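Sanity check

After download, print the first record. It should look like this:
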Amino acid sequence: MKTGELLFQGEKGGMLAGSVIRRAWRSARAEVLTPDEFASPLGRRVYDLRHTCLTNWLNDGIPPAQVAEWAGNSVPVLLAIYARCIAGQLQDLKQRILARKDLPEVAD
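Expected structure tokens:
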């Protein structure tokens, strides 16, 4: 990365140390969350936000290939991590299959 491309820079102009980011994140969570929320896993790590975003995109039906591209992952890596997180699409998928009328009825 070139100098000036980082929103927050370390003392020498490079990336911030992970420990600095974690301390800032913890302080921010403590300021905005209730004590019960803070004690929960809700956004405990900065990475949790990315995980939630990708899970939501997949659950919203965005094709895994597109999500993988946006996330900078390969499809196999994305599905290895998030396949068990995908939920709530079965009824819609059954309706799409039935609407094509080229497959037998799908049992629940």
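If your output differs, re-run the checksum step. Summary of this record's structure: Residues 18-32 form the longest helix (15 residues).
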